[in-house]
From TrEMBL:
The keyword Lipoprotein does not apply. This is D-3-phosphoglycerate dehydrogenase. CDD domains: PGDH_4. The lineage of its organism: Eukaryota, Metazoa, Ecdysozoa, Arthropoda, Crustacea. The keyword Kinase does not apply.
Amino acid sequence: MGLKSVLITDPLDPICEQILGSAGVEVTTKTKLTKEELLKEIKNYEGLIVRSSTQVTEDVINAGEKLKIVGRAGTGVDNIDTDAATRSGVMVMNTPGGNTLSAAEHTCALIVALSKHIAQACASLKSGKWDRKTFLGEELNGKVLGIIGLGRVGREVASRMQAFGMQTIGYDPMISGEVSAQFGVEFKELNEIWKLADYITLHVPLIPQTANLIGSDVIAKCKKGVKIVNVARGGILDEEALFHGLQSGQVGGAALDVFNVEPPTKSDAAYIKELIEHPRLIATPHLGASTAEAQFRVAKDIAEQFIDVAKGRPLVGLVNAPSLAVAMTPAMKPWVGLGEAIGKIAAALVQSDGNPPIEINCVLRGSKDPGQLLFLASSSVLLGFMKQASHRKLQSMNLVNVPILAADEGIIFTEQALISSDATPDGLTEHILEVVLKTVQNGRQVVNVTGSVKASIPILLAINSGNFGNGVDLEGHMGVFLASDDGFGQALGIFKEHGKHITAVHRSTGSPQNLLLVKAATPVGKSYTQQSDLKLLASVDF
């Protein structure tokens, strides 16, 4: 996928523009745009790079007539409407590792500051007081730290606070206790953590499942005097519940780097001013990623990731299209081509039958677990089918949005893996991809198309019960014909008569129907067979 122009709308380290420019990408930087200005500007660009200030709404994405990719130079993408991007076929990328160390260090600094009352003691001394008794602290050694979210940042926090002698417990729905034990964190369910933790730190994204994760009910379950740190996202911690917890003493202290509304002075919440000024709260203005090193890394990372997209390399940081993230790898590219090709063939054959399909079933037969290949190959089949059969504009359809667009058209899509030691013939890769289409009429089978990959080349193995021996390379232009017994010679004669250059002809075996695959240098049309016994079932361009 080419990438000609990129708009940057938030301040970034110059390395981002340097990397993109050296790769031949035209870069424009315009910061502090109003929404109206952004809506007008975005239509001219294929890529958009933001940090946290720019709000990439559905309106912005829809206005991006050429937009292919939105990049977040940072981790959180809550300022980007990923659902709207997905529906429009726009990739959303972040830089998952760029902020990790800075956010982890900021978290650890706040934990230490909470335990020693450093911020409050500093402010007291600067006001002219010498008050040693008020700021009696506590040691971290032996205290229990509950870490909610055991991704990159959570793990870095764990390793650093373990050096202070803290006992680290944690929860993450995506990993097991065996995995967390490898980096010294004892896995606990949330209800256990609330009861055990002296300190709680949050390292999860803001999604519906984590909104107000810690509210008044959770605070009531915690140890009296618990200390809470949030350097993740505002909204994960219920700020009003925290305020009341600080007031009552149930919460012994808190440190916030993020807020529901930023800056919090713009919030109209009645409690916010008292919360910020509370003597047991340490507040910083979203500084978790504000280090020179982190700013350089995220700018460099997002630029390099954009170049990877442009050059068709394997991708990292792809938020809304997991299948596309692996589609660029050398091992997977042939399967993307295979899936799309046989999806096109299946769609063309069904169209000739005159019955619109309601169900597409992809079966991947192989000698081992296909892993991500099943989803990738199946999505590619759906993409090929939709490109051949749909009325939608092709440039707006890709692996990012094709499942949504297919569902919009009422297509039921299923996939399954069948593992068997003798699943594939010699010379093929470990898998065979079979596509079965059914129509509305009584769910009867219309067409079955089978293919595989041989020496990194997608090949067609069968259409229905008609087999094609060692396979037919899926490239160029192909016509699928129903022919009489002498159809082979007839096809050659007809195409020669019309000056058509045939590159290959393949006859099916094992089927009562005599199928011919005719590969030509130019598209195969019905006009060549109107005066013959040949019936064109499908014409496909790969």
